[in-house]
Amino acid sequence: MNRPYSGYTGRRNTGGPALPALFFPAAIFYHELLLRAFDRDTPFLDLALLRTALFSIAAGLLIGLILDLLPWKRAARIAGGVALGLGTVLFCVERGCRATFNLYYGIGFIGGMAGDVAGDFGSTVVEVVLAMIPFILLSFAPLAAFLFLRRSVVPDEGSETPLRIVLAAALVACQLTAYLLSVLGPAKSYYTYDFTVNAAVPHFGLLTAARLEVEYTVAGVPAPPLGEFLDDPVNTPAIAPSESAQPSQEPDPESSKRPVPTGPNVLDIDFEALAEAETNETLKNMHEYFGSRTPTEKNEYTGMFEDKNLILLTAEGFSPYAIDKELTPTLYKLTHEGFVFNNFYQPDWTQSTCGGEFAVTTGLIPNWVNGGLAANASASIAMPNTLAKLFAAQGYVVPAWHNHTYTYYGRDKYLGNYGYDYKGIGNGLEMTESVTKKYWPESDLEMMEETVDGYIDDYVQNGQRFHAYYMTVSGHGYYSWGGNDMSQKHREAVEAKYPDLSETSQAYLACNIELDLALEHLVDRLEAAGIADDTLIVMAADHYPYMMIAKDGTDYYNELRGFEDTESDTSRYRNTLLMWSGAIEEPIEVDTPCSTIDIVPTICNLFGLDYDSRLYSGRDIFAANYKADQYSNSMPLVVFANKGKGNAWITAAGTYECSTKTFTPNEGVELEDQEDYVKRVHRLVAAKVNYSKLILQEDYYAHVPLPE
Questions:
Q1: Is the pTM value of this prediction over 0.85?
Q2: Phi first, then psi: what are they for 520, rounded to 5°?
Q3: Distance between CA atoms of 436 and 529, rounded to whole angstroms?
């Protein structure tokens, strides 16, 4: 029977029933393959590729079935094009994040930061896009194909019922198989309680990572198997100090004049009673865990700086290779004449500057909490153990500054919740020269010049003690003469000394001269006021300068250091902890493995503050109640962020590299049972990571009655 003439003279449907069924599964898997192919750190052929393929097929079949079932085919084609277009943009944005920061970020994080990035880094965004043109062009191929074949992909006549049933069955089979491979295999933790977008994308694909992010944002991340993280026996006994545990230096002359305090650094908290009275199983388990931890002991450095002043800095993109005796003489002085930490690390917590700052200021491991930054999650909960609140309770003033937009990362909210009187550009910090000349990044020196006189003069004239905090920005990438005004400012000096280095390495060294000048001004003012002996300066990096890795994969950080490694190696994160005071007459070398989460409890001990060492992820670096060849849950432990390969770690006994799954004992250390030691440290690391996350998720500190 002939159909009546419809008046339509366009292209006829082509491709048969296979094209509508296979187009979207193929398009999604194509995007996943493309993302994987451009990612130099993700193996291409492994079990994760199978999981990704199955999830992609299931998602594509679902989209195809929905469009097929819609009775309005014009609307269905529009919806299909919009969905494919948005998906393409998402893949391109994530590729840009990976290329720039070597991380995949969650949709919520990207959306929350989009305005700040566009406003503050517009030129940088353009540079990233230009470098991604090959990826972008390839990414838009499926959308172009859909626009050309849309009437064949979504034909006017829907599929027959039997075909729909077959496609639905295939959808269920693919999704179920992929799910079982995810939750029953080695990637289970990344699909559930250890979920982060960065770890999930290589294991399950971007689309699945986005789905899980939405799901967990609404319903919460699945609870970890908390009982598996407790030591067996639960109460690991304290271990007496031994020579191997002591800092490598001779006893500090100042400390020898004081009686050495003894006893654990704890508060009067009855965790056992709290656990017995708690009905919430998670909180009950947390009370049991924190009660089971062995506290660190007081030591010869306890109270060394009691009643003195503290200046704490988180330095943007700082590394040991920014220290040069001629180019940065103040950095050289402060890192060689105070405490000298020979085994200090700043891990990449996968949260850029914000994660590093969180570790420096809270003593907790930064985790992604329901898809959000740890610092943001801490902005509206009880945070009684921050330095600002502990010092304020002792009558100190606690100002804080950042020489960039004051709301960036939500810094005004979380630093305010930590107790700081915080000011940045746009909220009380006057940076006239930087703002007028539109410097990017802004000057650390100018920030210091604008701020130090107030609290120094108040101390000299009125005896008002202070704890000041700074978040610097002059060391921020991009590291090029056109991408960093602080680099351009000091270009001539670096080119004269290091003419053979690449522009990237030269620019990195140059911008850190501005940080050096800021510290020089600070020290000069302290010494001129006669209070350098009354002040401790502490500084650590937020992260190593990962933006020295170029878009083409060239690793200029290796050029700067003179040896090769990758972001999978723990050596990449070795850094410098600056801890200096005019009161320290001779350098004090410390060989204890330590990291940024140890800074807060170490400062608490140095200033003789009342604190509970069990409530931090880190520990007092000077605590000596451990032995290098024995396991203890209070021993030195450097934890590296899990990027989908497990957590690497370092103890006084040796180093575990998660990329190779190998443990290398330190020279001179013999373990009675190395396999058992590694197993127990793995469990301790998992405990520290998960309980740090739960502190934020459960607002745990609000459930612990801290003594007044």
A1: yes
A2: -60, -45
A3: 31
Element (H, E) at 145: helix 141-153
100-158 pLDDT tens trace? 887 888 888 787 665 555 455 555 667 778 778 999 999 999 999 999 988 888 888 87
28 and 59 Cβ atoms separated by less than 8 Å = yes
pLDDT in tens, 143-190: 999 999 888 888 888 778 888 899 999 999 999 999 999 999 888 989
Tokens of 159: 């599929």
Q: Minimal CA–CA distance to 39: which of 103, 87, 84, 88?
A: 103
Using alpha carbons, list the distances in angstroms from residue 146 to 25, 56, 571: 13, 17, 47
What's the number of CA atoms in the CB half-sphere (13 Å) around residue 71? 0
Identify the H or E element spanning 126: helix 122-131
pLDDT confidence of 400, banded at 50, 70, 90?
Answer: very high
CB proximity list for 356: less than 8 A, separation 6 or greater = 314, 346, 349, 366, 540, 541, 542, 543, 596
Q: What CA–CA distance (Å, rounded) separates 202 from 477?
A: 26
Residue 165, token pair as written in the block: 């049933």
Reply yes or no on whether the pLDDT at 681 is more than 80: yes
Alpha helices in 426-549 (DSSP H): 432-436, 444-462, 485-489, 491-497, 503-528
- How far is CA 163 from its chain centroid? 48
Q: Left, alpha or beta for 530 (phi > 0: left; psi -120 to 50: alpha)?
A: left
**Burial class for 634, CB neighbours closer than 10 Å (0-12, 13-18, 19+):** buried
Spatial distance between the Cα atoms of 201 and 104, rounded to a whole number of angstroms: 7
Q: What is the pLDDT of residues 269-290, one digit of tens each?
A: 999 999 999 999 999 999 999 9
Start-end of H helices in 541-615: 556-561, 599-606
Distance CA 487, CA 289 (A): 48
Banded model confidence at residue 227, pLDDT cuts 50, 70, 90: confident
- Please give the full DSSP string across 315-372, using - where no structure is assigned: ETT--GGG--TTTSHHHHHHHHSSEEETTEE----SSHHHHHHHHHHHSS----BTTB
Contact of 594 with 565, CB cutoff 8 Å: no
> In whole angstroms, how far apart are CA 613 and each of 506, 590, 602, 618, 685?
42, 20, 10, 8, 17
**Mean pLDDT in residue range 597-605:** 98
469 and 312 Cβ atoms separated by less than 8 Å:
yes
Q: Kindly state the helix (H) or strand (E) to which residue 141 belongs, with its residue range.
A: helix 141-153
- Number of alpha carbons in the 13 Å side-chain half-sphere of residue 60: 23
Cβ atoms of 418 and 382 closer than 8 Å: no
129-143 as b/e: b if 16+ CB within 10 A: eeebeebbeebbebb
| Section 413-433 average pLDDT | 96
The amino acid that residue 408 corresponds to is Y
Bridging pattern class, strands 578-581 and 339-341: antiparallel
Tell me how far CA of residue 390 lies from CA of 377, 397, 540, 601, in angstroms: 20, 11, 20, 11
Q: How far apart are CA 194 and CA 689, in angstroms?
A: 9
Cα 123 to Cα 620: distance, rounded to the nearest angstrom: 43
596 close to 360: Cβ distance less than 8 angstroms: yes
pLDDT averaged over the chain? 90
Place of tokens 């943007």: 316
Residue 374, amino acid: A
In degrees to the nearest 10, what's the CA dihedral of 194, 39, 100, 416? 0
